[in-house]
């Protein structure tokens, strides 16, 4: 004869507790598209008719206007477009003209910086072709791309964060986490 057992509230709570503890550690991890660019990520176009396509080193013309880009997980092909703080600008310059810290994070003269202005967070879309400076359309801050993204004009309080790059098997890859803080500090 079988006995039907009714679980007590206490027993149910215990089971609930066990279930909570047994959740995988990454159950609350950030979604892949919101994670900052990761080492080994590919670099793809952000916007335009090539959005999501790989940017090859050959597509970046020497001293031309920086290209809006994003990182992409090479395993899942997920583009890390879930946070605007992941936006980057990629460009190619003569590696001989780069300061040492900048050259150390560049790949054959190809460099990448955060696209978010350190002043109040506008997208840095302007380009001063003569000086090779990225420039912010909001309050005219300027950043020297050949020298660590340092501020050379305007109210921005700190350099742009740089994203280290490498070329592996002919492909552009992220070589490490952002150098410097991405984004801006709210001022009260
Ligand atoms: S937000 Fe870029 S200069 Fe103010």
Order of helices and strands, N to C? HEEEHEEEEEEE
Q: Largest sheet, if any?
A: 4 strands, antiparallel
Radius of gyration: 22 Å
Assign the CATH topology.
Answer: Rieske Iron-sulfur Protein
The assigned CATH architecture is 3-layer Sandwich
In the CATH hierarchy, what is the class?
Mainly Beta
Strand content: 15-25%
Q: Per the principal axes of the C-alpha atoms, what is the gross shape?
A: globular
**End-to-end span in angstroms?**
74 Å
Helix content: under 10%
Mean pLDDT: 89
Tell me about this structure.
The chain has a single domain (31-174), classed as Rieske Iron-sulfur Protein, CATH 2.102.10.10. Helix content is 10%, strand content 22%. It has helices at 9-21, 100-104, and strands spanning 42-45, 67-72, 88-92, 110-114, 126-128, 133-135, 142-144, 150-153, 165-168, 171-174. The strands form three sheets. The chain has a four-stranded antiparallel β-sheet with strand order 1-2-3-4, with no helix packed on it. The protein has a four-stranded antiparallel β-sheet with strand order 5-6-7-8, with no helix packed on it. Strand 6 and strand 7 form a beta hairpin. The longest helix has 13 residues, at 9-21. The structure holds FE2/S2 (inorganic) cluster. The site of FE2/S2 (inorganic) cluster has 12 residues, from loops.
Topology, element by element:
Elements: H1 9-21, E1 42-45, E2 67-72, E3 88-92, H2 100-104, E4 110-114, E5 126-128, E6 133-135, E7 142-144, E8 150-153, E9 165-168, E10 171-174
Antiparallel strand pairs: 1-2, 2-3, 3-4, 5-6, 6-7, 7-8, 9-10
The chain binds FE2/S2 (inorganic) cluster (FES).
Residues 117, 119-122, 136, 138-139, 141, 154-156 line the site of FE2/S2 (inorganic) cluster (FES).
């Amino acid at each position: 004869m079988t006995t039907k057992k009714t679980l007590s509230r206490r027993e149910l709570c215990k089971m609930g507790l066990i279930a909570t503890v047994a959740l995988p550690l990454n159950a609350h991890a950030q979604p892949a598209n919101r994670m900052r660019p990761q080492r080994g990520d590919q670099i793809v176009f952000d916007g335009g008719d090539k959005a999501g396509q790989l940017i090859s080193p050959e597509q970046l013309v020497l001293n031309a206007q920086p290209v809006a880009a994003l990182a992409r997980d090479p395993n899942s092909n997920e583009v890390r477009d879930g946070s605007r703080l992941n936006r980057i600008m990629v460009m190619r310059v003569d590696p001989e003209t780069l300061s040492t810290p900048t050259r150390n994070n560049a790949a054959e003269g190809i460099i990448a910086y955060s696209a978010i202005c350190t002043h109040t967070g506008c997208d840095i879309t302007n380009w001063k072709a003569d000086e090779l400076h990225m420039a912010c359309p909001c309050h005219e801050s300027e950043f020297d791309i050949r020298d660590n993204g340092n501020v050379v004009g305007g109210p921005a309080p700190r350099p742009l964060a740089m994203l280290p790059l490498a070329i592996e098997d002919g492909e552009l890859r992220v070589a490490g986490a952002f150098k410097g803080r991405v984004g801006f500090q709210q001022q009260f």
